[in-house]
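Researcher: Let's do a round of design. I'm pasting the structure tokens now; please hold your answer until I've finished.
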């Protein structure tokens, strides 16, 4: 079974449990903290994915790093996952949990790439465009800059991409002249 499928199932179980206990927001914070810590500490991420390191050793490290910072329910969940030998996908589970949390709350995440920083008016227009595309309640817009675009923007929402950049339009024009 694919790692993403297994991670999604574990995340679904955890989000259902969190809803039952009324601590979904706190669990979401825990998962964000876990992801951020792994991202900032490459060695920890590599260690968790290393099949040579014993599960008990990995669990001891997880407990030492996160034990006092995360909700006891989160730590219990991590322990169960580690006991089942799935500690190598804890990061994937955290990502899947955050994705399911966003769906639960109606949050859509989008990335916009431009050549210059967005104005507030343009930011609002892009958020509205994402809302109409996805039907989401709220939109989290990540802004990036790329000087190679020349002008316009590239908007990514999930697996969709809207390329309204000048570079793309010039490429389309070049292809039209070649044909």
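Researcher: That's everything. Go ahead.
Model: Designed sequence:
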């Amino acid at each position: 079974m694919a790692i993403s499928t297994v991670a999604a199932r574990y995340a679904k179980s955890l989000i259902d449990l969190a809803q039952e206990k009324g601590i979904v927001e706190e669990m979401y914070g825990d998962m964000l903290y876990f992801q951020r810590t792994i991202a900032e500490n490459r060695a920890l991420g590599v260690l968790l994915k290393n099949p040579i390191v014993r599960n008990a050793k990995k669990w001891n490290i997880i407990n030492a790093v996160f034990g006092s910072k995360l909700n006891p329910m989160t730590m219990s969940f991590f322990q169960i996952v580690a006991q089942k030998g799935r500690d190598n996908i804890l990061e994937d589970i955290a990502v899947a949990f955050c994705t399911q949390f966003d769906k639960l709350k109606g949050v859509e995440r989008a990335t916009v790439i431009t050549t210059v920083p967005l104005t507030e008016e343009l930011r609002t227009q892009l958020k509205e465009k994402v809302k109409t595309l996805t039907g989401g309640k709220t939109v989290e817009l990540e802004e990036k800059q790329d000087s190679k675009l020349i002008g316009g923007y590239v908007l990514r929402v999930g697996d969709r991409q809207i390329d309204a950049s000048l570079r793309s339009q010039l490429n389309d024009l070049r292809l039209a002249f070649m044909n």
